[in-house]
């Protein structure tokens, strides 16, 4: 496994919007700060300017950027990243610099791995590098990308697309997901997970996950619900009903339903399903347990039931999700310190939120 060199394209024009700095800062943070205790040598980062002359008279908050390298810095790079392109190139159809397009084509022909974050996909598409490929961008711009470049198979529903030597991501935080995915490919899951921990971000979100999915479990603002929800979290392997939770909270089922909905925005069955999926994610990341056993421990029932919900909510099957964490699998009969203490198999279809069951 090798880190290699990363060349990041920097748009050099006056009044670069401040929000474009986010995508630019992502590869600088991931690949630019040495991590000698994780991998030595780390990546060799180059910031490569497009060489455009400043455009005077642009309105709005922004700044002028100057990079240490020109576009010739893309030559010989193992990975080339285009974080974004100017808004005028997306919204107004302003041509991208011909020198940039030529440099991207040259780098790809030389064997570089080509990457775009957010609207950077427009540059790869203009260079013809996305023709016939599946690609993505921020959902606000995918319709324009598809219309302008009909040879690109645009997918507006995913966080990022890994097509081997060409990778594209949606906007903002999805760009961070893709950069950590590159580290995982280059240096392994352990290094990527440790780097994510230092950045205080989730270790991994699969590229196939939908851009809008949020499997986090909202905390309850109503403190009277906390004991019941904590109890439910410790007994997810059991068939749980609204009546069970309401009894633990010393409320009527109707009152419990109303208060949980007000506190979390979810019905009790939705809350349980998300909690079970979160537990299943944790077990897939950290253990080598069979899929069927994880279905039992999480309360999702059979392996088929787990696959159904995982594919529907996360966007990828559990086996594919697990393969992103090869260093985290442990052998043994069960998890350590996660999930219900007393796991008991349940009949298919008994889990809250399972197919065919009517939610509360």
Automatic annotation (TrEMBL):
Q: Which InterPro entries match?
A: Class_I_gatase-like (IPR029062), DJ-1/PfpI (IPR002818), Homeodomain-like_sf (IPR009057), HTH_AraC (IPR018060), HTH_AraC-typ_CS (IPR018062), INH-QAR (IPR052158)
Source organism's superkingdom? Answer: Bacteria
CDD domains tied to this protein: GATase1_AraC_1 (cd03137)
Keywords associated with the record: DNA-binding, Transcription, Transcription regulation
Concerning SMART domains, the annotation shows: HTH_ARAC
Record's SUPFAM superfamilies? Class I glutamine amidotransferase-like, Homeodomain-like
Q: Domain HTH araC/xylS-type, which positions? A: 226-324
Q: Which Pfam families match?
A: DJ-1_PfpI, HTH_18
Task: Please list where the region (Disordered) is annotated.
Answer: 322-360
The protein, known as: Helix-turn-helix domain-containing protein
Organism, by scientific name, is: Planomonospora alba
Output the lineage of the source organism.
Bacteria, Bacillati, Actinomycetota, Actinomycetes, Streptosporangiales
